[in-house]
Amino acid sequence: MVRRFIFILQGLAVAVIAMAQASFMSDDSIAVFIPANYDASNHQPSPVFVKELGFQDGIPADWRLKPVFSQRDGKQIATIHVGDGVDLYGTGEVKGPLKRNGRKISLWNIDTPAYGVDGGTHLYQSHPWVMGLRSDGSAFGIIADNTWRQTISTDQDVVFESMGPAFRVVVIERPDVAQLMRALADLTGHMPLPPLWSLGYHQCRHTYYPDGRVMEVADLLRKHQIPSDVIWMDIDYMDGYRIFTFDPDGFPNPRRLNDYLHQQHFKSVYMIDPGVKAEKGYFVDDQGRAGDYFVKTADGKLFEGKVWPGACHFPDFTRPEVRSWWSTLYRDFMATGVDGVWNDMNEPAIFGQPEQTMPLDNRHEGGDGITAGPHLRFHNVYGMNMVRASRQGLLLANPQKRPFILSRSNFLGGQRYAATWTGDNLSHPDHMKLSVPMTLTLGLSGQPFNGPDIGGFCENSNGELVAQWTALGVYFPFVRNHNTKGTVAQEPWAFTPEVLDACRTAINRRYRLMPYIYTLFREASETGMPVMRPLFMADPTDLSLRSEDRAFLLGGDLLVRPQWAGRTAMPKTAWQPLTLEAATDSFQCELRQRPGSVIPLANLAQSTTDLRTDSLTLLVCIDGEGKAVGQLYEDEGDGFSYREGCYRQTSIEATLRKKQLTVRMRQVDGKMPALSRMVRIGFVAGGRVRYSAWQQGNEFFFNIK
User: Fold this and answer.
1) Taking residues 362-371, what's their average pLDDT?
2) pLDDT the model gives residue 22
3) Residue 75, CA distances (Å) to 16, 374, 377 in order
4) Is 155 a catalytic residue?
5) d(CA 651, CA 293)
6) What are the DSSP E strand ranges found in 436-483?
7) Closest CA to 393 of 236, 287, 272, 285
8) Does 50 score more than 70 pLDDT?
9) Is 365 a residue of the active site?
10) Rg for the chain (alpha carbons), in Å?
11) What is the pLDDT of residue 2?
12) Distance, CA of 106 to CA of 273 (rounded, Å)
């Protein structure tokens, strides 16, 4: 029976508050709370969850976190009392510190250069998700299953306040953060394993034009021996900003350009926006009109909004037939040798409109069980639905390749379709420092593959900032240098030889760490654990680590502290200083390795195409018992054969006895043939690394003097 209470405040009936109607346990320690006035047609099928939440049992009487639903001023509210002594995290792509207590976050995707709109209180993505960490290390997560415009307030009460209809709330309880992240991924979807090349260094600018300039950038990256994998094409490669076209003057032969890049072991990524130039005779617009695929106004007229090409139409990606049509547009485009796709401006951003987007009463038709509704309902998932369609298109065009899509806009669960970056940041030290908690927070919100524009996008950067940001950014999941038109060049060679050397040193570190990083991405795809992690994950019961958002972890075994961070919180366990090379600059981050771990390093390579794992350096940092363990995941780097077992999972075990270090590599999973490798042991202790001679085989010895 639903219990109802009428609260009177200053003589006014504020709300009818209801403990959830028909609430239930969906799975072990996952509770679903449904308000009395809930109408599933306003929310379901949910874009958040990979499958509908099924009934398993009733809510236990001792369940700790129970939302109270209410209404006020036409808004629907869910209030969850979490109490004091709880540290809150998550809330998606946001400005501000890692710890989210005492914040108010708006969930309304918007184009916000330099995060300047509304004081940066809302950005390009929305994640209605809050995670909590108690003092004993136990963790919980709260999801508001609601795409409508809303806010989150985080204090002793977590409050979701929505402009849409009543919504349900999902609460997850887990004994620790790692199990909470797995539960979030199981519910909202696991990030697909990306292609290996997408984890390398990316070079971009708005814009490299014409194609000869793109080739020149490729040549300079190789000339300066800067390891790199990807060069990006911003909107000027298009013919009059018409998507799926190429400028006949600047990019007359895209196949020739892409072949040139491929010959030098580069991949290419090209931008595709959602705005379709409204022009009869332009094939995309003609097809969209003929199929009636575009968004309409509330009175049924074809909506037009201005973006780069001028007047544009916008696909209604809520409709399955529109997503299928959109996917077919990629076949000929990708056939020119394009490797990846960049979906930008997909909040959607529209010039000259209130809040720079569609009218809120524009109509989306839905399908596959989704009812028609206004843009107010579907705005926050417009970008997510777009990248869903784009992923379908890349798989249709190249079914044997793993798609790589980067999206500016997304929603909780969107990691199923695309990687992301933190939008149009500012070339300023404050935004460099802000990029750490932003990247960590996205990881804690279910999106492991993310990062900022290194060097900053808006306004002029400088050599010191580019060197500092590159030295930091190589430890982010996504590593791209990118800036806008009208600003100074900020490629690594654009400043002084000292800046070039610092950037090269940092990027070399990235590529040497690639076996470790690729193994982390495999872990993220299977468990939902972030690639880049907050320091508190080293010890969730250490309260001194809870607010640290300058130093961070790359995986579970490598601690990164930027030089500019100064003194930071550190784990109580003595992580050992790690030197990968004798760096001659003051920009490189301080690294520390976890006792009891083994980190595999590759030899230097100029791209992931050149990367080899038959010759490795194993960095061994023993624990108090003289032991250390590590993992190495390998596959073909692209394609889907790994799903059929074509991979190699290797366990690395090290033991120190009487000053002899023994290291064994043992394949524990996968059908790829075992390797007999050339291996060098790096013994990490006492602030230095001592190296053994190179040895071949699967068992290695090092006498520690």
Assistant:
1) 98
2) 82
3) 12, 16, 14
4) no
5) 51
6) 450-451, 453-454, 479-481
7) 272
8) yes
9) no
10) 26
11) 35
12) 24
Q: Tell if the pTM clears 0.85, that is, is over it.
A: yes
Question: Which helix (H) or strand (E) covers residue 182, if one does?
Answer: helix 177-188
pLDDT (0 to 100) of residue 21? 57
Q: Is 668 helix (H, G, I), strand (E, B) or coil?
A: strand
Mean pLDDT of 257-261: 98
**What was the pLDDT predicted at 704?**
92
Tens digit of pLDDT for each residue in 645-671? 999 999 999 999 999 999 999 999 999
Whether the per-residue pLDDT at 27 is higher than 90: the answer is no
Tens digits of per-residue pLDDT, 198-222?
Answer: 999 999 999 999 999 999 999 999 9
Q: Is 347 a catalytic residue?
A: yes
The catalytic residue among 111, 173, 316, 424 is 424
Q: How far apart are CA 267 and CA 278, in angstroms?
A: 31
The answer to whether 59 and 31 have CB atoms below 8 angstroms apart is yes
Question: What does the alpha-carbon distance between residue 659 and residue 677 come to, in Å, rounded to a whole number?
Answer: 24
For residue 497, cis peptide bond before it (omega within 30 degrees of 0): no
Buried b (16+ CB within 10 A) or exposed e, 397-423: bbeebbbbbbbbbbbbbbbbbbbbbbb
Active-site position among 347, 548, 557, 634: 347
Select which of 161, 247, 339, 344 is catalytic: 344
Burial class (CB in 10 A: 0-12, 13-18, 19+), 485: exposed
583-619 burial, b if ≥16 CB within 10 A, otherwise e?
Answer: beeebbbebbbbbbbbbbbbbebbbbbebebeebbbb
Closest CA to 90 of 440, 418, 425: 440
pLDDT tens digits, one per residue of 433-457? 999 999 999 999 999 999 999 999 9
Q: What are phi and psi of 149, to 5 degrees?
A: -55, 135
pLDDT value at position 4? 32
pLDDT at 702 over 80: yes
Residues 223, 427: Cα–Cα separation, whole Å: 26
Report the candidate in 420, 410, 421, 412 with the shortest Cα–Cα distance to residue 453.
421
Confidence of residue 233 (pLDDT cuts 50, 70, 90): very high
Distance of CA 343 to the CA centre of its chain: 14
Q: How many other β-carbons are positioned within 10 Å of the β-carbon of residue 198?
A: 26
CB 377 within 8 A of CB 364: yes
8 Å CB contact between 352 and 310: no
